[in-house]
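pinned: reference chain
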Amino acid sequence: MGTDTVTSNVSLNWGKVDLSKVPNVVTKPPGPKSREVHNRTSKYMRGFSGQVKLFSVAFESGKGCTLTDVDGNKYIDFSSGIYVTTLGHCHPKVSEAIQKWAGKLMNAHDFSTPVKMELMEKMAEVLPSNLKGFQLYDAGTAAVEAGLRVARAATGKHEFISCFMDFHGKTFGAVSLAQIRSTCYGPTRASGFHMVPRPDPYRPIWTKANGEIDTDAYINFFGKYIDEGTAGQACAFVLEPIQGWAGSIFPPDDFFPKLRKLCDERGLLLFADEVLTCMGRTGKFCAMEHWNTRTDITTLGKGFGNGFPVTAVCVDENIADAVENVSASSSYGGNPMACAAALTCIEVIEKENLLEHAIALGEHCLGIMEQMKERHPIIGDVRCKGALMGIELVKDKATKEPFAEAGKFVYQHAFGNGLAWIPACHILRMSPPIVMDFDTATKGLELIEEAIDAAEKNLL
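pinned: its structure tokens
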């Protein structure tokens, strides 16, 4: 897809950035107004994310692929508000749909509404064909918890297998699926939750004689662990298709088909948490489509409503009745505004061929990142699928020792020069809106490379 074929689409015009005006740093950020707003906020608010602690800017507005802070600095957005604003900030069609229902009907609990009906039918149309049972929520972690309840109800079993360094949310069940330490939950995860390593092609645990990652060894270990490490009550294997919090970690292409086969052999459901990877983020409505792998349970979120809180649990038609047995409804889930936001996002992606554009954008960015890797001794690995990208920084390419100091330096340096994005220790995470044009993406990567240059000069 060339740039001349995409400019006719509303969203791609909305996502286009005037690079003569953005980025534009008029006051070294965080500027005085940002510091004042943040300091007054943090007098009462607690629990800021790591990215805010590293760069405490206060944002005032967003438009398309840009953000503006309270000091008037303008940034290219390479984070989509932490993987959320997939169609860009304040997309006109999404905003209009939300405004319509905000003035008509804000909440009707779980009663049916015309817009909910349309959303249900559209989801059944665009999602993998076996997913035919849906319920809506207002947070990713709520959808994940619902998926856990469905798995137990459908199988009559209660144990779960998940993977090291996955992230699934911040409620007790979701936390128990992940390698997250929190004193509020006590010294152990919930009973019946087990974790295993997942294949990371750059940092494999098991390899073949030729040095390539050995996915069969992982699958064999999973089977052995299910036999020996559980109480024989495993009901589902839960994992992210692509790890986000861990640093955009992509599995080998043969991993998910083999995992599906293992789940079928052992009677486990396959539960893909697509809260981060859904709605075109990787160039597909669901990332698992890249590997032609059927799931029994899938969760959607983040970009599902382009910023409006709406998430979903989606289940295979063969276990759809299990949703009836898990107290599925919620106070805010499926309200008309949320349904309108999600429905409009799907329609925009379909009508404007944004899945194709996301794939083309990813190919464009990966080409640039691979060239960067050749030029820089601290770039150990680069990866990209659609608008989900990662750059891994190392002290030595041979030893692959993580370079956390460089990660922090690069994040703050690029942010200071007008790139709003996501830190992840030594792995740089990028998730620009899928409507971003190629020139803006190139500029964003140039800002990152400038920061990497500076890190190499200052830290090596």
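why pinned: The chain has two domains: 3-34+52-77+353-459, 93-351. The first strand starts at residue 59 and ends at 63.
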